[in-house]
Amino acid sequence: MLTVSGLGPWHLHFGAASFKDLTGGIQSLVTAAGVVVGGCWAYFKFVRGRTYRPRLAVDLSGQWRRLNDTDVLHVRVRVTNIGASMVALNQYGSGLRVGLPANPEHNEFRWQFLQLARRTASAAETVDRVFEILREHAWIEPGETVSDDLLLDLNSRPTIYKLELALLWSLSGDHADQFSPDDIEVFARRILGPEDTLSDKLSSKG
After folding, report:
1. Residue 114 and residue 97: Cα distance in Å, rounded?
2. Is the sign of the CA dihedral 107, 108, 111, 112 positive or negative?
3. Exposed, middle or buried: residue 188 (CB in 10 Å: 0-12, 13-18, 19+)?
4. Which of 170, 198, 184 is nearest to 77 (CA)?
């Protein structure tokens, strides 16, 4: 038995069982406090991530049109900021690719993306052609919808086609047109047919 005495009326007696119960209670309180603090920190990170991480809804649509006896493809890209923070578009790494059916080989369907020829210091080469998109919309406010339309002469008759869109977003426009490892990529893909149409009515929320 442990006796603690001193000046004044305080005189405490702790038996072995009582001392064990006291230390156990203190340990339980410390553990509970740690759980509460950890839970609060996890919730803070969860809310902060949902608040500040760019959240975007992308819609791709298109329609073949006849222009001056030529078939052209009208493509529309629409992006809605469904998050709570304003986001900036980085044109570096952003763009739209268009694929058409390639010549079948061994009954296997393949896509052929539009190619762009370019010459380097050593030789000529071809790369996938990427169309610039949303150049006039560097920023998108929360709840805002922006769109861009392209009219493309693909040298093709109306046929099935595939659209692939890559957009790089950040919470700051400090590195526009430059690579940044902190950018978040939003990717969208859609396959459309020659009979698909798009609505000529556009709405903008802001």
Report:
1. 7
2. negative
3. middle
4. 198
**Among 129, 137, 152, CA closest to 75:** 152
In tens, the pLDDT along 114-144 reads: 877 656 556 666 778 899 999 888 889 999 9
Which of 58, 80, 79, 61 has the alpha carbon at shortest distance from 196?
61
Amino acid of residue 58: V
Neighbours of 164 (CB within 10 A): 19
The token pair at 29 is 């309180």
CATH numeric code, 54-192: 2.60.40
Here the tokens at position 120 are: 């380097």
Q: Are the beta carbons of 194 and 64 closer than 8 angstroms? A: yes
Query: Residue 203: CB partners within 8 Å, gap ≥ 6?
Result: 145
Domain definitions of the chain by residue range: 13-51, 54-192
